[in-house]
Amino acid sequence: MFSEQACPTAQGLLGPPSTEPPTFPRVPVLGYSDCSGPFQLAERSFARQYAHVYSVRLAGMRPVLEQRARRRWGQDVLVRKLSEMQAGEKCCVVGTLFKAMQLQPSILQEISEEHNLVPQPPLPKYIQPSDELILEDELQRIKLEGAIDVQRLVTGTILAVYGSEQDDGRFVVEDHCLADLPPPLPWNGPSSDRFVLLASGLGLGSGSGEALLSTQLLVDVVTGQLGAEGEQSCAASISRVILAGNLLSQNTQGRDTINKAKYLTKKTQAASVEAVKMLDEILLQLCTSVPVDVMPGEFDPTNYTLPQQPLHRCMLPLASTYATLRLVTNPYQADLDGVRFLGTSGQNVSDIFKYSSMDDYLEILEWTLLAGHISPTAPDTLGCYPFYKSDPFILTECPQVYFCGNAPRFQSKLLQGAEGQRVLLVTVPDFSTTQTACLVNLRDLTCQPITFSSFGAEDED
Amino acid sequence: MADELYLENIDEFVTDQNRVVTYKWLSYTLGVHVNQAKQMLYDYVERKRKENSGAQLHVTYLVAGNLVQNGHVCHKIAVVREDKLEAMKSKLSTIASVHVYSIQKALLKDSSPLYNTDYDIVKTNLHNCSKFSAIHCDAAVPRMQPDIPRPQTSLQGSSQRENDTDAPSTATVNGHGPLAAKHPPQQHKGIMGMFAAKAASKPQDTNKETKAEAPGVSTASSKPPTKNNIINNFFGKAAMNKLKVNPVPEQPKEEKEVVKPSVAVAEPESSPHPAVEKPGKRTESSRIQQKDRKSKMKHVDRSDNEEERDPENAKKKRKRIKQLESDSSDEEDVPPSPTPEEEKALSPSPVAALKTELEPASMEVSAGGRKRKRKRVLKSKMFIDKEEGYMGKAG
């Protein structure tokens, strides 16, 4: 999208200096409203049990699922609770799924002395053929069998199953359905080309120099320093930059103070201090030129449980003087120039990846949208705040751009829904390994990756 | 010709200084638009090569364009050495831009010198890093600083006190002489130039004012908050910490210089219990400089407090004294401690007492209660003196 416009003047800077080089104004922000209210935690009390999360989730999604069930299996399908079921009767039950996995890391087993177990090393996937699915509703639970893909589903999904209970207490499933896409939002997008740059996994503080120049090139392109005039004028139509998590690298997370002797670590500084300073400088360069939304990720200095709270502005003293810097939560939802964005830093998708047979990040992203919930595996295997009033991860409105950060590679897909929903699904790749960021065009919901490269010691082609 | 100047400059940078001259570095150094810098570099290369074909010049280019990769069309931006330029251009289906990225004498093995050059020049120009860029953003304005009014309040406060202290000005001069001398050098290091100049140039009878301002501004993050703190929230530790955060974005550059003093101030300030705030600070601070500044702050603060709130807080103070006595250390409250009120109130009080402000200042904090007690006692004596010998204990 950049290139076509920029081609005519591509070689323009290969010549003697001109007198008045043009300066392009950044496109003004057409409209911005932050819809991440539900993800911001006011008071944080961990005194409650996590069971409340599941009960509010079920209560919140039950009406939607019953409606879908009736649409799918007929208006007169019997929707029963588990306690009211009779053996042999075909009915539909709505409940929460629980997948009993043998390989699932269990803290109780680890610390149990009678087992004398060594803690299990982290595996890429914890699924096994012997996993079982159990459906729970408010009062009871029942084992599921039949036409249901055990490997694919994960704990915490709310779904409706159609089948009948057998005499031995198992439920044989004939069909099941998820919540499907939420209702669509009206389209208010811009009529001319406007771009939003999505990048994630900057990975500062990793100690590797290669990615640093690519990061610098990224900043230079966005701020209009790099490129010929055509490219700079295209870059001026980037109206926002969203950094989707993992601004710091995993290497900054090592805690030497735990493993090493005190005399070795007494005067050392945490690696994240230096990395945050670097981040501050990079954000300052970006903020002087474009509005930036910074989402925290898995390795960033904020809380671990979802929803992650924004980074504190005292860590970014230089950049936070600018109003263009916005420190936002993970997950993040906002209306940018009339287009509804919803995205996470990737923890939800990578957690589902570990506990399901789905391998493709884009497929998992689509599946979460169809399941109507951003992160069903929280709080089971992914840390989560013990909500008790309502579950903010339930999708009530269909976003128009749905992204997840820190994916292994770039993928995008435009999903069309039955009720007129149009969603652009984007998996934003990890910048420190792929040197790729994404440009989303808000006018027509298309996405293009931008790759940066430089030359290294070995000859690249 | 003026135009030729840039050619000479680039020549000097590349050949004489043996630098890696990137377009960004050139743009900041010569103060020109980035596009002009790129064109200047290209011009220089062309001319140099025309003149002297054996020129020792290595050039890197930036190429951008569309590339079909993994099934999608991706926009590729690459920095390439001159010898790989054509190869990269041929790989791209459409070329969006080509320009010179850098010139250097030696052949670069990898791109880290390029990154380092740009990093260094940006680091020294952080406050105007988008000045020479081709895109200008109207929305990017620094936020209004909420703590700008603070120096004003300190000025007003100190001027008030100044009126009270007109009579004993000589005493103040004596007492503050040595300390004022110490202050300006500290100020110069840590604070904005204008306040330093102000403090240095002001006459001695305004020493009070400068002292009040100087510690406030010199520590820059602790004084204003301390002042406001005292005024708004008597010994409010939370308010202090919060206010400390605010001034930080105000002076990102001063921050580094002021960090040490402010950290030293911050540490003691944040640790103690609010009621014992002042004494706690003194005991924990180990640097005399910090002590000086703090003592000044404490002087000012306590003077403010005691003047403004004497009647109301007399009881409060007494209670606190009782608590403090148990906490404070013994060694520091033995000598008599002249305080700002004392200095203001008295005229020819023992000069020695005033000159030992340094120590009394430090002692004050740890045994703040006892100090206050002693102050009050001395004050009454001063009243006695003032009333020319009449024995009348005023409290």
Describe the structure.
- The complex is a heterodimer of chains A (461) and B (395).
- Chain A contains eleven helices and 19 strands.
- By secondary structure, chain A is an alpha/beta fold.
- Chain A folds into two domains: 273 residues, 4-Layer Sandwich (Purple Acid Phosphatase, chain A, domain 2), CATH 3.60.21.50; 110 residues, OB fold (Dihydrolipoamide Acetyltransferase, E2P) (Beta Barrel), CATH 2.40.50.430.
- In chain A, a hairpin with a 4-residue loop joins strand 18 and strand 19.
- Chain A starts with a helix and ends in an 8-residue tail after the last strand.
- Chain B has 395 residues and is of the alpha+beta class.
- Chain B has a domain of 125 residues: Alpha-Beta Complex (50s Ribosomal Protein L17, Chain: A), CATH 3.90.1030.
- Chain B has a four-stranded antiparallel sheet with strand order 1-4-2-3.
- Chain B is globular.
- Classes of the chains: A alpha/beta (461), B alpha+beta (395).
- At the A-B interface, helix 1, strand 1, helix 4, helix 5 and helix 8 of A face helix 2, helix 3, strand 2, strand 3 and strand 4 of B.
- Chain B: One of its GO terms (cellular component) is delta DNA polymerase complex.
- Chain B: This is DNA polymerase delta subunit 3.
